[in-house]
């Protein structure tokens, strides 16, 4: 380009009107904000499997899952997480502050009585005479477990033992008691050079007895018969309690290490050193146990085989609930209320395992398999309970269970529309002040919510418009009046069974809606995943490992499928127990049956989803937090309810898709409110508070509402 053309173009640019410059600035601002949004949606993962899981989180109809489905490289974890998974055999180079609240709490909860047991067992070993070496060991461990922090238990190696046998008066036998030698120090430590033992002429072999092997000693069997069993009970009890408390898992590790290794060593091979005696290093010993803190608040992140420790701890509750529920038929051991509470609580870990199985299979499979697995197992938790309750209510001719199922469906809808987004907005807003999300993708979910709620409550509106209002009893307000006047009527309802309204009009409408809603769900899948997938603008960054090579998954596809099947069977058993023992809860005079349905039965299975949504919000990914609730609400209306209608068509259990006025208007109002909140693509803790307050107001309505008629 010539200089004259450049000057002319510059002159033309200067002559532009100010409005053109403003429009250009606005255009550039929009482009910059769009690029910023795109950069925020770039996904980076450790491997291809994790990348697939993250992409599935943004796909409509796929379950949102926060936890990793593959093992993360230990060297890439933060120092806090590394400390959680480290073994208690690494000696720190510098002594920390040992007097902490957790350590003092350990002494009050465990230390004093564990030490007392060791004192008693040590006295017992001294009484046997043969077990005196083990008695000395028990008394040493008595002092150790009273305050183990900073002290170390070592195993003496062969070289040091041979040195002491060949030269009893050498220097090593003196310094061992006052040192804490380490064979494998921590990476931060610098081991001291080995000090060779002075050459001492060995005495004649016949004058020195040989060391008796461990299993050829009589004291070993005395120890295993008298001393070891009570310590097994004590350490197992402490290990169990400290593991259940989660934050005291280091205490559990310490007791497990003692029980499985230290107490099975020869007593002369166990060396206990204090934190103040660590000047001489270099002897051949191996650190077995060294604990510095009894509690760590970050253990809520601890996972076992990819499953959070809280879900792992709740898993034995499933077995206990099933055993007690099916063995104690006459309620001689526990009451029906306790059985119901145990059965409902057992749903929480099973829901977590089902979610992990779905995420694992979807991440390791193609899109079609993942969509099928999410559609079939994604609602299995709720459907299992609903179908079990309907069957039991039909066999017992109890119409109350049908109303409880409808209340649970409505409660799930309200909780996913109001409570889950609201609590995520509050927690995320408190940390990040203001969070942004893709309003266009949220608009797709909002449109599907409108379609869902409109379709589900269409038969209810139809019945209100054309049904006959029937009352059980009516009486005049004025007792002397026997003509027209104001009346008070009781137990009024719309009569659907009598006449032809239900069979000729409402029932065909229900079947029509049950066909159209799944069809709309499929159209939503095609729209968001195929034809208009650019709405979500998901960009996968470079992964560290290409393909599946070098990737270690927690659960393989076949293992995930097996866990899904087993968890589903256990879920069915727990749902059967819950519906069997729910009647005493429903008979409570001060609590409405509606309230029980919309709270306990609706929200307990969704606890894993609430946790996932909160974790997404804390990572400033409010889009996924909002999608968690919207996805479940859409599945309730477009999949779960049509499946219940289809089940009722083949096995008549009396399920009628006609809800009460309170269910209908509460759901419609909630959808309108949440669409208004999602309109601007921004969220903060105030908007979340508004959603949660509205949810609590609706719960108050259900709490004070009378129970359904006839219940």
Automatic annotation (TrEMBL):
Membrane topology of the entry: Multi-pass membrane protein
Domain Sodium/calcium exchanger membrane region: 340-456, 560-702
Every Inner membrane component domain range: 101-151
Chain segments carrying region Disordered: 1-31
Composition skew (Polar residues), residue ranges: 1-11
Primary localization: membrane
Pfam family, one: Na_Ca_ex
Name assigned to this protein: Cation exchanger C521.04c
Transmembrane segments: 104-130, 221-247, 302-326, 338-355, 367-387, 407-430, 442-462, 509-529, 561-579, 591-612, 624-650, 662-678, 685-705
Compartments it resides in: Endomembrane system
Keywords: Antiport, Calcium, Calcium transport, Ion transport, Membrane, Phosphoprotein, Transmembrane, Transmembrane helix, Transport
GO CC, any one term: endomembrane system
MF-aspect GO terms: calcium:proton antiporter activity
Example GO BP: intracellular calcium ion homeostasis
